[in-house]
Write a structure and sequence with these properties.
This protein is mainly α. The protein has 3 helices and no strands. It folds into 2 domains: about 30 residues; about 30 residues, no CATH class.
Length: about 60
């Protein structure tokens, strides 16, 4: 019985933490830009549909001025 109570308490604490994390994400606008998010998996640089080249976004160290 003690083991069941321990796991139940653990599940409740984890659920509360995840709900708090989700509430924080919604409040801070983490899900606000859904139009850009749909293109992130398709872009090499993760820059969205504007098509930035990966090398322009992250130049090599010897190319930096």
């Amino acid at each position: 019985m003690s083991l069941l109570l321990t796991w139940t308490l653990y599940a409740l604490i984890a659920t509360g933490f995840l709900v708090a994390l989700f509430a924080w994400a919604v409040r801070t606008g983490q899900f606000a830009d859904q139009d850009r998010a749909r293109y992130l998996a398709l872009s090499a640089s993760g820059g969205g549909p504007e098509g930035r080249d990966e090398h322009e976004a992250h130049p090599e160290p010897w190319q930096q001025r």
